Amino acid sequence: MTPSSPSAHTPAPRRPTVAFMFSHPAHFIALGFGAGLSRVAPGTVGTLWAWLAYLVLQQWLSAAAIGLVIVASTLVGWWACTTTARNMAVADPGSIVWDEVVAFWLVLWLAMPMGWWGQLVAFGLFRFFDAAKPGPVGWADSLFKGFGWRGGWGILWDDFVAAFCTLLAIALWRFL
């Protein structure tokens, strides 16, 4: 067994449980503090959690501080996603939603201020690009696969590209 392969000693859960989530700090983070435990559309639930969390964060933090939170959350998330995927023995489990959280924070951080309808459009666009993986998002999704740090980055990378596509669509919408 190599350090980048799934653990041979820990049985991988078919679906993560509350016990699995609390068994390691990385699991708690990668599963979006429980959002990834949703049986229905965990990525959408994770994005909704991100939206709510961002609205709360912006009440207490400056835009610069939120930017630092996003950078730190990306680095911590890379570790958390890498560790959790390895412990689940699945290269990119749908229950890992930290990638949606950080990427949607990036969308909101760069696109705000927006009213509720603008935020809803941003949410819908991001979910479309993340789930359907058209063009560049599909390309990004295929780049980094497997276990270890490369695979952990891959979990995040396609969501960042989906965020970029969302921001591009918003910019075009605002321009036109």
In short:
The protein is built from eight helices and no strands. The protein has helices at residues 18-22, 25-30, 42-60, 63-88, 98-111, 116-132, 135-143, 149-175. It starts with 17 loop residues before the first helix and ends with a helix.
Overview of this structure, please?
The chain is an all-alpha fold. It is built from 8 helices and no strands. The longest helix is centred in the C-terminal third of the chain and has 27 residues. The N terminus is likely disordered.
Topology:
Blueprint: H1 18-22, H2 25-30, H3 42-60, H4 63-88, H5 98-111, H6 116-132, H7 135-143, H8 149-175
SS content category:
mainly alpha
Instruction: Please describe the biggest sheet, giving its number of strands, its sense, and whether it closes into a barrel.
Output: none
Question: What is the CA-CA span between the terminal residues?
Answer: 55 Å
Strand residue content: under 5%
Strand count = 0
Mean pLDDT: 92
- Weakly predicted, low-confidence segments: 1-5
Which shape, going by the Cα principal axes?
Answer: globular
Strand-and-helix sequence, N→C? Answer: HHHHHHHH
Distinct helical segment count = 8
- Rounded to an integer in angstroms, the radius of gyration calculated over CA atoms is 16 Å
As a percent range, the share of helical residues equals: 55-70%
